[in-house]
Amino acid sequence: MFDTLRIKLFGRQPFAKVDDKTLERIIHREFGNRASEVKRKLQGVKSDTPKGKNRISAAIIKLAGEDINAIDNFIEISDNDFRDVLARAEYPGCFDLDFDRIKKDKMKQVYFADWKDYSNWLKKI
Any long-range contacts for 35-39 (C-beta under 8 Å, 24+ apart)? Predict the structure, then answer.
C-alpha cells in the first residue's frame, strides 16, 4: 500500500522485500519436489546481506520461470552485476526504456505496472 502511494505521489520505484519465509514459499511454489535442488543452487548467490540475497534469489526464480537449468545462468549474471537480474525481474517495463525520453507521468504508470506485476507474483500461492 505504501509502495503504491510512493509511486503515485513521488514517482519513486519501490523495491521488493523478500524474507526467508516468502523465499521458501516461492521456491516450493515454482519448483515443487525439486525445491531442495533449487535451494542448493541459490546458496551460490552473492550478496552483502541476507535480505539482499533473498531479493536476488527471488528475482532469479522469477526469471527462470520453472526452468531449473536457467537458475545457474541467472546466478552467473547476478555475480557480474546483481542489478541486471533485479531490473529484469522487478522492473521489466523500465528495463528497456530510454529514461531521458519518457515523461514523468508515464514513468509513474510504468513503475506502478511493474510493481503490481512483481507484487502479484510474490504473493501468488
Answer: 37/68, 38/68, 38/71
User: Tens digit of pLDDT for each residue in 71-115?
Assistant: 999 999 999 999 999 999 998 887 777 655 677 778 888 888 998
Residue 107 grid coordinates = 514513468
Report how far residue 14's alpha carbon sits from residue 25's, in angstroms, rounded to the nearest whole number.
22
| pTM for this predicted structure | 0.86
Calculate what percentage of the chain has a pLDDT beyond 70: 87
Distance CA 107, CA 32 (A): 36
- Residue 7 neighbours by CB distance under 10 Å: 22
